[in-house]
Amino acid sequence: TAAILLKDYRPSDYAIGRVHLDFQLHETETLVTATLSVRKRETTVAGTPLVLDGDELDLVSIALDSVSLGDEAYSATPQGLTVKTPPAAPFTLTIVTKLDPASNTKLMGLYRSSGVWCTQCEAEGFRRITYFLDRPDVLSVYDVRIEAPVAAAPVLLANGNPTTSGLVPDTDRHFAVWSDPHPKPSYLFALVAGDLGVVKDSFTTMSGRHVDLGVYVEHGNEERAVYAMDALKRSMRWDETAFGREYDLDVFNIVAVSDFNMGAMENKGLNVFNDKYVLANPDVATDQDYGGIEAVIAHEYFHNWTGNRITCRDWFQLCLKEGLTVFRDQEFTSDMRSRPVKRISDVRLLRSHQFPEDAGPLAHPVRPEKYMEISNFYTATVYEKGAEVIRALKVLIGDEAFKAGMDLYFDRHDGDAATIEQFVACFAEASGRDLSQFMLWYSQAGTPQLDIRDDYDGDNRTYRLTLSQSLGPTPEQSEKKPMVLPVRFGLVGPNGEDMLYETAKGAEVNGDVIVVDKAEQEIVFTGVASRPIPSILRNFSAPVRPILNMPIKDILFLMRHDSDPFNRWQSASTVAMYCLTASTEALRAGSSATIDGDYLAALAEIITDDALDPAFRALVLALPQEADIAREIGSNVDPDAIAGALRHARRTIGSKLGPTLDHLARFYHDEGAYSPDAESAGRRALANAAQDMRAASGNADVHARIMEKFGAATNMTDRLAALVSLVQNGASEAEQALGDFYEGYKSVPLVIDKWLAVQAARPGARTLDEVKRLTEHPAFSIRNPNRVRSLIGTFATANLPQFARADGAGFDFVADKVMRLDDINPQVAARILVSFRSWRNWEPVRQGLAEAALKRIAAKPNLSRDVRDIAERSLA
Ligand code: B3K
Ligand code: ZN
């Protein structure tokens, strides 16, 4: 199959104004009748063939204006249907297809999940339901009639508003008709039918529209859907106040299903969710789960405007809806919780997921220009870096112009299938700034490096800051141009406060933002009283990699004193990273690991500073992970040495700061009733981070105490934290705790996912065999994406030393599973395979073994397009 190129885009020859769908639901033989109102576009030559997309379809019949089409008039395969010479005047096409939802293991199109019929159409799943112009720039108004057995599917849902429903006379079946007045692309179509419980509520929009809300879950889980409903109502209100966006239908429904390829899906008026992002109560969900639910509910809801009302012209523009919607959900969480803590968490995620992507063979621009399989482009680059680019734009043009640009975008493009150029043009217009250089953020892949040097001249009281940017080659892009980087900064004086200066020359400086737009820029500040310490890239104002060239003592100073909470955290993490990479090198050279005493002192100072938010302190205490250190080292990586360095650092901190950590674990451990709010969650985060670091000391009494806490915990956050501490730190109680945990939660699959993940992330050479055994465990199923991600995904992405074992057995295991999954669910298989992406950074022996595993996958017969694409790009 040929690659699809952005530059080849052209509009469709035909438009489909209305779609009527009739579903006769059946487990294995569902009949779909699609009635399409088709019209030739003005510029299309009469008689141009109408070419519809299909994927594994079984055509039953086709008629044009109610007359059956003769064999000579069309051609059909499972992969497409062509009407050879359609009329020049508008016509109706009636297509009947037959589907087998029960055997649809790809979970794209119409499938069955725990007895429920549900659909997933983004990006190209609608073509698995009927032949269609399955592309986001074909917008249609849909009416959907669903008919199903009353007993199996008392609940019948589709997009839009419900119109009629009733029993089908003389049968055991009933029907419902839904109409969606808003034109939409096929990828936003959805249908759900099944026997489901529901939590109902309502919402009155800012203009007074009454909206019925429903969260549908498996019977018995209703109580676990209450938090999701609350998050939904808060999201609806927030979008009104923060962005002026109101909901536009009479109903909004969310359905939780247990078999789902990703997090959730923003189908118009009918969001379908992975149950992981809906179901919660204190006994089964952690603070992190609650936070995830709140964020994903908001994200999908926000898509109603950024994605649905304004959609994408083509899939290359995916970041138009995803980057922007991530930006919006980040802002929502910042307003609901702590803004600095959210910022730090997001940057950690960006660094651990997106930076490695940008630095490896799968690197691609935020707006790609080429793809083989679009499913492989729902990446951290499109989502998270896409959000960072919008955040940087806001810093560059200022809050006011940003808001004006958003308003203009909504105003001008409502109802459109838009492009990134159109989006950015709104901000150029609102700010009066030329944003053509800014567009490079969308076209150049890779993470720019920002090199910082400075020099103070005491005689003249001038301070010189030299900022230079560079961007290395990425696949298919060798030459890069300088980008525009908004760099937020402060000059920190000896008392820890920001210093004043008289003038700044050499670059555009707006308030506390330096606009770097050349390869190198020298900014000269006058009237600077003494040598400042530069605090650069405050709040992570652009997604770049700063190179500080600063003495450790200055970074320690910022760790203690920077007024920007992000850079305080960043400085702590920079110093920790410095110690960890130095220790790794020492261990490889046969000497021993060390940890800086001044770092320990500063760390102790911060974590005990009661003026600081406990959640922030917990983040300062969290050391970089193995993969972060590997990324920092960059090449010839030995995961065992890294694990050794990390173990040493944690053991040292755990024993040297023992009493401090014990105190924090006790003091912030709350006994009261559980509440998922950010403040309580922050206290638990600090207590558990302290407890975990303390456990790293290896002290048997500490382990025994944690085992007690594990048994006595009154919520999943504390229980899981205790379990992780016991297992990760090699406590003798670990087996007992794992056994108790399984017995306690074996009936709750989402908790069993945690149990699988804890074991997959376990250090030590026995883990691989244990993971293999767990793939045979009755709680595991290779057909369920959540189980696969928890066990195999965690092993491949969160246990670098065991995945990248020196004997290659970890690679072989994951490769075998990828090949097995390829026949079942290619999207999930491709996701798991991404874990090999940094293989060229490893030391030569591991590199060779990883390459062999990748080649073995690439050679598999009948490899899916999804997996072939990842394997080939990884090897290129
Ligand atoms: N738009 C969906 C993702 C669809 C992924 C298709 N492979 C969820 C989201 O980003 O909100
Ligand atoms: Zn999204």
Automatic annotation (TrEMBL):
EC number: 3.4.11.2
GO MF annotation terms: alanyl aminopeptidase activity; metallopeptidase activity; zinc ion binding
Domain Peptidase M1 alanyl aminopeptidase C-terminal: from-to ranges: 553-876
Cofactor dependency: Zn(2+)
Keyword Zinc attributed: yes
Domain Peptidase M1 alanyl aminopeptidase Ig-like fold: 446-545
Gene Ontology terms describing biological process: proteolysis
Segment forming the signal sequence: none
Ranges of residues in domain Peptidase M1 membrane alanine aminopeptidase: 227-439
Residue ranges annotated for the Aminopeptidase N-like N-terminal domain, each copy included: 20-188
Catalytic class of the enzyme: hydrolase
Known catalytic reactions: Release of an N-terminal amino acid, Xaa-|-Yaa- from a peptide, amide or arylamide. Xaa is preferably Ala, but may be most amino acids including Pro (slow action). When a terminal hydrophobic residue is followed by a prolyl residue, the two may be released as an intact Xaa-Pro dipeptide
InterPro entries with a match to the protein in the record: Aminopeptidase_N-like_N, Aminopeptidase_N-like_N_sf, PepN_Ig-like_sf, Peptidase_M1, Peptidase_M1_dom, Peptidase_M1_pepN, Peptidase_M1_pepN_C, Peptidase_M1_pepN_C_sf
Keyword terms: Aminopeptidase, Hydrolase, Metal-binding, Metalloprotease, Protease, Zinc
NCBIfam families: pepN_proteo (TIGR02414)
Family: Belongs to the peptidase M1 family.
Protein name: Aminopeptidase N
Native source organism of the sequence: Hartmannibacter diazotrophicus
Gene: pepN
